[in-house]
Amino acid sequence: MKALKTSICVAVTALALSLSLGAPSCAAEDEVSTLTRQMKELYQAGKYMEALPLAQKSLALREREFGPDDARVATPLNDLGTIHYNLGQYAVAEPLYKRALAIEEKTLGPNHSEVAMVLNNLGDLYRAEERYAEAEPLLKRSIAIHEKSDDPSIVMALSNLGAVYSHQGRYDQAIPLFERGLAVLQKALGPDDPEATVLMNNLADAYMNRNRYADAERLLKRSMAVTEKAFGPDHPDLAQAQNNLAALYGRQGRNAEAERLFKRSAATFEKTLGSNHPDLAGVLENLAGLYKYLGRYADAEQVLKRSTAIRGKTRPI
To answer: For residue 187, how far is the Cα from the chain centroid?
Structure first.
């Protein structure tokens, strides 16, 4: 059948947890510590809307305590940017990332691991906005910094650069990056850690576009099992794997299975991320493509109309 577009779920760096480079007041430190812990728990559970006000308050406390350009403000800036990114609010996330990057380059130097983390985040944001020419050099720079220190955090930038290449159809360049990243992550965390599922999805997508369907299906099913065991049935990462497996089934002509999984994916995205998230739009576009291929044009038009409306709200101006 005609190839369906697959929305790649690209790795986003985990929330940085380092709280302070100095010694703030005890009361402020205790409150920020509590906020950060709670924020991380919500973030890891995919509850980004609930994590957002905690990240905003943490940043406000740091700015009040140290001023807007202090090194200790960079981490909460990055954290808040990451949450806005996951909510599809790219125009809000970009200046937060840029501000964090400027502070860290000035205070820590251009080759620090914290700089590499924000470079990765900003590069992935540009990838999400299809600004590939801007994304690629930032992600390459992040990788180069991590390679100097043999930091396992290199996995994030490897995955995101691979995703840039995949979105451009450069699968032969993407696959080695995904395979390298997955090997590093599994060595560090074990074979069943949920952090590896994003890379499983990315690698499966690249395999699918090289017609390695059995390899892709194996990775996607494993990703779904690991994610559901870790987080339950309502998590954005599970929805992404369902979307990608549906796209694979569509390529194989397994249309009823594909439709069922696209619908499950859309429902999970809407439940966890809201009705106007770009990841939901991507799944709806895939489902519309399937309906069009099957000659169900009225269904395709209805679904595509909803996806277009979401895109209109989330694309940068």
So the answer is: 21
